[in-house]
Amino acid sequence: MYLTVKETAEFLELPEDYVRQLILNHKIKTIHDGRQYLINKNQFHNHLEQMENYRKMIQEYLSEPLPEDPDVKDED
To answer: Where is the Helix-turn-helix domain (predicted)?
Structure first.
């Protein structure tokens, strides 16, 4: 399945300008049909897996309780 630049930006949750810059720098493989760039959606499978793993890792880190500070003394 091929996506336009706008659809790719929405799919990757990135700004359109950034996606265009990646295309111009040959970081994203495209097909140019004379009017627009078309991008194969399947090439982002690995990227999306890595982003999902990173999100899970961040969520796990944020959900860990803070350890008690051994220097805190209860002085009533």
So the answer is: 2-50
Q: What is the pLDDT of residues 13-43, one digit of tens each?
A: 889 999 999 999 998 899 999 999 999 988 8
d(CA 33, CA 30): 10
Contacting residues for 15 by C-beta, under 8 A, at least 6 apart: 9
Token output for 49: 């897996």
Query: What is the pairing mode between strands 30-32 and 2-3?
Result: unpaired
Q: Is the pTM of this model over 0.70?
A: no
Cα(54)–Cα(48) distance, integer angstroms = 10
Helical ranges in 1-76 per DSSP H: 5-12, 16-24, 45-63
